[in-house]
Amino acid sequence: MKNNKKHLRQTLDNFNQEQIAADRKKVENIGKCKKSAMRILDEFCKSPKLDITTLVQKTGLTRPTVTNTIKKLEGIGIISAINHNKKWGQCYKYDALVGSLGDFENNTTRTQNKNGLFLQFNGRDFADKLSDTPSTKRFKPYKYHNEKLANRNSSNRLYIGDNLDGMKAMMSKYQETVDLAYFDIPYNMPSTRLKQAYSDSFDGTCDLLCMLLPRLKLVQKLLSSTGLLALSVSEHEVAYVKLLMDEVFGRENIVNNIVIEMAIPAGLVSGYTQYKLPSTKGYLLVYAKDKSQVNYLQRLYDPADDKFTSGFNIVLDEKLNKTPLIDFLKQQPDIVQRFKSHKLAIKNENIAKLMDYDTDFENYMYQTLSKNLYKRTKPYQNPVKSDFNAPVGVVFEYDGKLLEKTQDGTVYHLKPFYNKLQTDDNGVLANSVIRGDIWKGYYSEKSRIQKEGGVPFSAGKKPVKLIRDLLKWIGKKNVVVLDAFAGSATTAEAVIVQNKLDGGTRSFILCQLPEEVQAGSIEAKAGFKFIHQITIQRLKNVTKAINNDDGFQIYV
């Protein structure tokens, strides 16, 4: 869930005051037109981009006066023309990054971090202090909800308020206890929807970074010594956000920059190729509080392109006698008939085809034959081949592994096909490959996303599968999961569902701003007035749907 831009603006407006005061001193020294210049400056303080016609209307000055005054303001560097249409913008309105990465030999205003790098941006000084500024918000338990039997003893929490205040309020109870934090921050892109739940854009990159910096500092304090933060971000802001996370967490503590495939270049997406390649991805930046302590991550698997991998072509019996797979299949009358009925020759390249056509044959390969079906892998390294006096071509056991020595003296390890099989989310065995840092397949979830949780949410719902994959990657079943941008509570649903499937005792902490739903959106038409009402409704729906006895508590 993205933070309310209007709410944030009340804080960010304070960033301008020092710059505005300096500009006013400049105006006092420009001579006769200082009164008209001050009126124009006041208008620019309200809006970063104005044209002459609008200024004439707003100030009541004549067009020549406005034109001449603008030229003087440009001349002293207060405003600058930003395009040929003569619309202006001031640097203190967060239009662009005014600093850059660099070392601190020539910067005496800040302490150099250990990487020698620093990302400077407008509003940085004020944002730096926000994480340490005491919060005036005092969260109180919503007794009517919390005292219900299902919620009374729940370890799950929903804080309704700004997550800056929420994370400060959590500190006394949850400092150094969070195992996984997930931030779905604003993508800072203009909406392509006419009416979505809330605005997803800020007034520039500096605006976004000012929001994010104190929240990164707070979540780092909440993370346990082995904890991770996974942050979703778009290609538009990933570079700047990563540099900020490098600074807060330490560049050495990045675990992965994961590419999330969220679409395929087809249908509507392929219609945007006139000026650039269609965008089909997002990024998931994963940082550890201390990477040296992260030794628990599990392998993840994706379905292989084919149901069978042809390299597995050796069948071993109980005495480790070898039979080529094709010869073995030809010895099974029922299997021969299955190939024949589909007009397929009994060849390695046809095994996957028959598995597609014949469910019984697929079950036979996966559930019956897989534990006896092997392939040779890379040469076994320990001990070296010269240490073996084993006969050539004979399979034997060594150190719990099956080995075979070939004619040239190389010793190979034989691995079973069963090790390639993994149980998918539906509990079905499937041929698989190890997943890397490109996570695919989420576009297939798009048709289900709007139905997940039983609530409408038009502004960037993430699929439950993505968060469940994060939970499976972590592997531990008793973790505390924080989502400070809760939105429609996708993270909470993933925690509840995964607990149900594997018997875990994970708990969640959510924070959601009580942001108004935009008029005319599908959320408004469904009767919701605030985003947090959608969060609560989804939590109730999911809890009821899977008969979960552990509810959640609300703090407002």
Task: Give a verbal description of the structure.
- The protein is 34% helix and 17% strand.
- The protein is built from 19 helices and 20 strands.
- Mean pLDDT is 82; it is low at 1-15, 82-86, 90-113 and 191-201.
- With 556 residues, it is α/β, with parallel strands linked by helices.
- A hairpin with a 5-residue loop joins strand 9 (314-316) and strand 10 (322-324).
Tell me the radius of gyration: 30 Å
Report on the biggest sheet: 9 strands, mixed
DSSP summary: helix tally: 19
Approximate shape: elongated
Overall average pLDDT: 82
Condensed summary:
The protein has 556 residues and is an alpha/beta fold. It has helices at residues 5-12, 17-28, 34-46, 52-59, 63-75, 124-130, 143-146, 163-174, 205-222, 238-249, 325-330, 333-341, 348-357, 359-369, 446-449, 464-474, 490-502, 522-525, 531-545, and strands spanning 80-81, 88-89, 157-160, 178-184, 223-233, 254-261, 281-288, 301-303, 314-316, 322-324, 373-379, 395-398, 401-405, 411-416, 421-423, 429-434, 438-439, 480-483, 507-512, 553-555.
Short descriptors:
556 residues, alpha/beta, 6-stranded antiparallel sheet, 19 helices, 20 strands, disordered N terminus
